[in-house]
Amino acid sequence: MISTAADLVAGISNSLAAVLPEQRWFAGKDRPVHAVIPVRATDLAGSDPRLVHAVVEVDQGQPHRDRYQLLLGVRSDLPESLGHAWVAACGDHAVYQAVHDPELTAVLLELMAQGAQRDGLRFAAEPGVTLDTEQRARPVAAEQSNTSLVYGQTYILKLFRKVAAGHSPDLELHRALAAVGCEHIAAPLGSIEGSLSAEPVTYAMLSEFLRSTADGWAMATASVRDLLAGGLLAEGAPGPTEPADPADAGGDFASEAHRLGHVVAAVHADLATALGSSAAPGGYLDALADDMRHRLDEALARVTDLAPHASALRAAFDEVRDVDGPVPLQRIHGDLHLGQVLRSVAGWVLIDFEGEPMIPLAARVAPASTLRDVAGMLRSFDYAANHLPLGDADPDQRGATALAWTTRNQDAFCDGYAQVAPDPRKHAALLRAFELDKAVYEVGYEHAHRPAWLPIPLTAIARLTS
């Protein structure tokens, strides 16, 4: 049996090079893995089973190498129930992904409850929090860029798989919002933090598990399905048909969109209270327009379908330079869409304040306009309305119905937002630029990952620039 955690991780590096690209949270699936280099490894508990925390660096031929957090279990006899988590053989022991082992993930909760430290890793509960260490965990299957473990029906632990130097915006903003009594988040309860190369690192965040909640994306798309189903029935009737009216749909979402807008504005107000806000400095709007044009140029180099819209997009981005009046800047969510909100019995809750994971941390934590969050949600309504396959249905009529649903819910969201903060539609040029910037990003993403969805952002760009 290999004695040290560092030797164990080094000994299975070739197996990790094959296993890592298969994980949902691995960011470099489009590039070959040349090597996996151990950065640090720490024994957290036990000998059989044994729990090892590791950080590895992945060489994919790029100047910057991504780092990932791993939890590895080691057993002499791997139960059949953990066979799917197998990573490698190490002598006469099996090494596997410990997030699937409730006996080992219980250790993380116990260490946070104890306020323990292990080789520079700091486990802590939030001030005033007492943790129930009898809870056992199960991984959440739907997680992508991270891994979440639900302990009983009480806690959820988010493991940040891609390790970045600096404090996690998710943990930072949850703490700040909790400090001012924000009612629209899950309460932060604990953390795992440390350092790498003398820089702070957040490895995990424990928060309240919200039971009996519904995902915003699922609710919105159910409303769209109800509307389209009603339209299909109408098409079967004799005579001409009009596009279905979303207000008449059994699953009309507008009232929820209105409530959601109200909550997003309230969270923005709480963030400003907790962390401050200020007017944008001179030159901000020019720099913002330049950044949008730069992202457009990068997308144009990859996606030829975007070329017919290039001139109109540049013109829309350049309009930002002439926006009058002060532009307030503050901390924002940074990646707001219908998949980042949950509907509980008490109301809407925002989750995942990490920001867009592909953006460098310094940009994610920089103060920004709240209109960027609003634009992200408006784009999400458009996606919800248009992502369903049309089958043999009349595309023009389906498009008109989807647009009616999108417009109704975008307006309802903005109406709700305007009850708490200035109406975002009063800043039309800036809001439209943020929507188009997001749509340009979507074009690049869909071209690379979901080509069948590419018409969604392209159609939106054509509509917003017409």
Could you please describe the fold and organization of this structure?
It is a single chain. The protein has 466 residues and is of the alpha+beta class. The protein is built from 13 helices and 18 strands. It has helices at 5-11, 13-19, 102-114, 169-179, 216-235, 254-275, 284-302, 310-318, 361-364, 370-386, 395-418, 428-449, 455-465, and strands at residues 35-45, 50-59, 66-75, 86-90, 93-97, 117-118, 121-125, 137-139, 147-151, 155-159, 162-163, 188-196, 199-208, 214-215, 277-279, 328-330, 341-343, 348-350. Strands 6-7-12-13-10-9-8 form a seven-stranded antiparallel β-sheet. Strands 1, 2, 3, 4, 5 and 11 form a six-stranded antiparallel β-sheet that branches. Strand 1 (35-45) and strand 2 form a beta hairpin. The relative contact order is 0.10.
Search tags:
13 helices, seven-stranded antiparallel sheet, alpha+beta, globular, 466 residues, six-stranded antiparallel sheet
List the SSEs and their pairings.
Layout: H1 5-11, H2 13-19, E1 35-45, E2 50-59, E3 66-75, E4 86-90, E5 93-97, H3 102-114, E6 117-118, E7 121-125, E8 137-139, E9 147-151, E10 155-159, E11 162-163, H4 169-179, E12 188-196, E13 199-208, E14 214-215, H5 216-235, H6 254-275, E15 277-279, H7 284-302, H8 310-318, E16 328-330, E17 341-343, E18 348-350, H9 361-364, H10 370-386, H11 395-418, H12 428-449, H13 455-465
Antiparallel strand pairs: 1-2, 2-3, 3-5, 3-11, 4-5, 6-7, 7-12, 8-9, 9-10, 10-13, 12-13, 14-17, 15-16, 17-18
Helix pairs in contact: 4-6, 5-10, 5-11, 6-11, 7-8, 7-12, 10-11, 10-12, 12-13
